[in-house]
């Protein structure tokens, strides 16, 4: 069933959009990510203009993240205090990122730059995730199904000033590193239309030293508000949020997130990370090929609206 998207100005199969939303929602529930780093490139592939994909993809992240975080609230695996500090940095980062995005748009280079951002970030993160996941998977097979975890040693996040106690995470660290992480994620959210979970989750584990059990829920909590703020700014300044596209993606995302939280408790975390890393690398490769291969039509003409 074809449906016309008024802002994107293209016709797309409605069931395809529901399916894309469901897939990204599934990943959101499984990994604690908003899923925008996959949703936005997938929208590129089906012909959605990058500026519209970024703004509308951020909107879809809100629903899938909200659906997933409710389950974690029920399990008491959300560190609200840590999430609030990350959020403070994230909102500032979104404001700065919007300035950068609008500047690139004024130069007429936003579509190319957004795709280049995705290739660089997805490629880097995907390769690092894949190597780490393979090592973790091999280690779990040698040691057993539940390998012992080593307690993190004292590092720079414990030395900096402005320390805060995060009881749910069992941490007493400086508030500056979470603010910096949130700020960086906010910039990416504005420019790339992502929630930033694919960067935030590893940073929360390896930099802040948060327990894995509270990382997913806390990440989703922060993503909800950052993605919502990103959508609001894009809608009010660039008018690139396609409501019809957003609604279809939202419906699929909410349903998929519920299934994702159920799948996550049944599969080994190491196996899930390998799958996610592989998916990231595939999407990155497709984006890179689209940028490198010469298109069949070098020029496109649009109707000027004149008689």
From TrEMBL:
Record-linked Pfam families: TauE
- InterPro entries named among the record's database cross-references: TM_pro_TauE-like, TSUP/Inactive_protease-like
Bilayer-crossing residues are 12-36, 42-63, 84-104, 116-137, 181-207, 214-233, 239-259
Principal cellular location given in the protein's record: membrane
Q: Is Membrane one of the keywords UniProt gives this record?
A: yes
What are the record keywords, sorted?
A: Cell membrane, Membrane, Transmembrane, Transmembrane helix
Membrane topology reported for the UniProt record: Multi-pass membrane protein
Superkingdom assignment: Bacteria
Enumerate the subcellular locations listed in this protein's record, separating them with semicolons. Answer: Cell membrane; Membrane
Gene Ontology CC: plasma membrane
Protein family per UniProt: Belongs to the 4-toluene sulfonate uptake permease (TSUP) (TC 2.A.102) family.
The molecule here is called Probable membrane transporter protein
């Amino acid at each position: 069933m074809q449906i016309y998207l008024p802002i994107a100005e293209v016709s797309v199969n409605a069931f395809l959009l529901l399916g894309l939303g469901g897939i990204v929602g599934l990943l959101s529930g499984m990994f604690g990510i908003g899923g925008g780093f996959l949703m936005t490139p997938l929208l590129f592939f089906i012909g959605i203009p990058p500026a519209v994909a970024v703004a509308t993809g951020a909107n879809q992240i809100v629903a899938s993240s909200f659906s997933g975080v409710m389950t974690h609230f029920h399990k008491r695996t959300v560190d609200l205090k840590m999430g609030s500090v990350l959020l403070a940095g994230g909102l500032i980062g979104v404001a700065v990122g919007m300035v950068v995005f609008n500047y690139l748009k004024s130069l007429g280079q936003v579509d190319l730059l957004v795709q280049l951002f995705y290739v660089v970030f997805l490629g880097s993160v995907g390769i690092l995730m894949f190597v780490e996941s393979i090592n973790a998977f091999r280690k779990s097979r040698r040691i057993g199904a539940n390998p012992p975890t080593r307690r993190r040693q004292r590092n720079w996040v414990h030395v900096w000033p402005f320390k805060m106690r995060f009881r749910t995470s069992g941490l007493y660290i400086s508030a500056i590193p979470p603010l910096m992480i949130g700020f960086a994620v906010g910039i990416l959210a504005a420019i790339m239309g992502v929630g930033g979970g694919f960067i935030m989750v590893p940073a929360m584990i390896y930099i802040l030293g948060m327990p894995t059990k509270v990382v997913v829920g806390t990440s989703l909590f922060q993503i909800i508000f950052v993605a919502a703020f990103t959508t609001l700014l894009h809608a009010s300044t660039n008018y690139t949020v396609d409501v019809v596209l957003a609604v279809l993606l939202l419906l699929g995302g909410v349903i998929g997130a519920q299934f994702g939280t159920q799948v996550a408790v049944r599969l080994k975390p190491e196996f899930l990370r390998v799958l996610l890393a592989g998916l990231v690398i595939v999407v990155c490769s497709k984006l890179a090929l689209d940028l490198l291969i010469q298109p069949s039509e070098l020029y496109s003409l649009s109707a000027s609206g004149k008689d």
